[in-house]
């Protein structure tokens, strides 16, 4: 009995076309969560970029960097609930102060990787609970890595970090402070960075499109792909530009660079990819690919063996046959067993009887011997008496009778 | 004396210390208005990934108005580029000290040459990271050591990514931290200075660290050729004092304090090195002498012991 996969044409309006709306309404009511991690050396522009992306002061701009060579990397997180057009977003941004700040930065990637994995483990723990309450999802959906705009190529610390983390999180490399580089320098730098990334086989997040999507979306995605890694600037200050409009940007003696101007930097593209178009894809990729890989790895190392028999198709007739066969087998087995037991018991009884037979025989023989003995004794006694009492008197006879009467 | 000076020409040696991609090479080429040095940054995937700081000196002879300058620029590729940068300053300090040692050796020779080829490092341009709100741990470590052996001029690299306010805040912060860590950058106050010199030095101290932009490209802006960087939002003019401090740095290094840099190297750093070395030699000789006397004493002690032994035998 196979499920028919043919598409049937409906003959009237049924109404399940309203399903997407129902999902939409429910998700809006529930709200969305998004967890973002930012990694980059001090002063490279992480806080400013986050504040610019979400148009709200999530991070206070630090007045001083913590200059302590021994602190290593810390993990701090800031949460904010922002709302736009009736849609609530619970945004968590995880910061990593101290990255790349010490003289010896060899182990800087470790605490970050541990943090990401512990979030996966926490989720796994919740999934495996016997009674599942509402699961809180703290997993990192995307990691923005800030590449220092040297103009040359990736530094050793960049390559090391990305190689260690690209299989555990969606990596989005970004070039901050892009106003340091001219257009030509930027193109050269981007191509060298991508060459490095491909050479070291680092997997970064690339926006995908469905072949069913409309041409505009596909063109959009292709545009984004061409600009990776995004070269951005961030700013929370606004100025008036040449055309009199008030824009966010940075004002220099030689000009004003605008954050939202696509010919000045790729900020708009980054925002579109991260928030408008691919936020859900990021969450999806985290859940289906990255988390599942982590989970399988973890369970294998814990000693579970993959049991593929549970994946067989469920077929009722075959199942019954199987069951009947098994039952028959069982019956046979029981019969054989009972037989064996019976045989055993019979044998036991036989041996017992034999034993008692022998015993009786022995006793019988013994008794016979005894009787013989007694008879012989009596015969002797008789002989004795007869030899002593020759003259037979009537007393003898009487005695004889007496003897006999004895 | 001036004529001899002109004939002989001067040696001027600079060392550039800073991470890869800070703009060291471009700045030097801009200061000396010519392509003197090539950038040592990694440009290809298989390019050299340096595991330690290398020392790459390049020497050129440049001339201007009959004055010849034998310029040596020492680049330090690999400095601060690894994940573990412990000891990345060691090759740099060693190079500087080696030059002092070489000069000392030639000076101490009984028959000296007419003019000793001066390879001592006269100035060190230390490139600070734009964006860090102050000195980083590696900066503090290296600056402490460098200022003991060479004239250090701190420079704020890639100043075109900082606004005017950010620059002012950064400079103030750096000066405070340098004072706190007791790091003395060039110029040093001296009793010989007259009022003019003091005023000049103060002005330089105020501008320090110099926020510079370098460029070898020339653009046409309003008909005049301009050295600078062109962006979509404007052109940065390297020679414009309102855009960056390049002009001040160049004037300071070449036009006013060039001879002073050389002199201070000879008087202050070389002399302190020399004193250290001679003292060390003296100590070594004293230690050797002491060892010798100790050995002699031991010999004497053994001698009577030996005779005693002989008697017993």
Write a structural description.
- The complex is a heterodimer of chains A (406) and B (313).
- With 406 residues, chain A is an alpha/beta fold.
- Chain A folds into 2 domains: 26-301, Rossmann fold, CATH 3.40.50.300; 315-401.
- In chain A, 49% of the residues lie in helices and 13% in strands.
- Chain A is built from 10 helices and 9 strands.
- Chain A has helices spanning 19-30, 46-53, 109-127, 156-165, 183-199, 215-227, 267-277, 279-301, 316-388, 394-405, and strands at 32-39, 76-84, 87-95, 142-146, 171-175, 230-231, 238-240, 246-252, 255-258.
- In chain A, the strands form 2 sheets. In chain A, strands 2-3-1-4-5-6 form a 6-stranded mixed sheet. In chain A, strands 7-8-9 form a 3-stranded antiparallel sheet, with no helix packed on it.
- In chain A, helix 7 (267-277) packs across helix 8 (279-301).
- Mean pLDDT of chain A is 85; it is low at 397-406.
- Chain B is of the alpha/beta class.
- Chain B has a single domain, classed as Rossmann fold.
- Chain B is 46% helix and 18% strand.
- Chain B is built from 8 helices and 9 strands.
- Chain B has helices spanning 2-8, 24-31, 90-108, 137-149, 164-180, 195-207, 246-256, 258-312; strands at 10-17, 56-64, 67-75, 123-128, 152-156, 210-211, 218-221, 224-231, 234-237.
- In chain B, the strands form 2 sheets. A 6-stranded mixed sheet of chain B has the order 2-3-1-4-5-6, with helices on both faces. In chain B, strands 7-8-9 form a 3-stranded antiparallel sheet, with no helix packed on it.
- In chain B, a hairpin with a 2-residue loop joins strand 8 and strand 9.
- The longest helix of chain B is centred in the C-terminal third of the chain and has 55 residues, at 258-312.
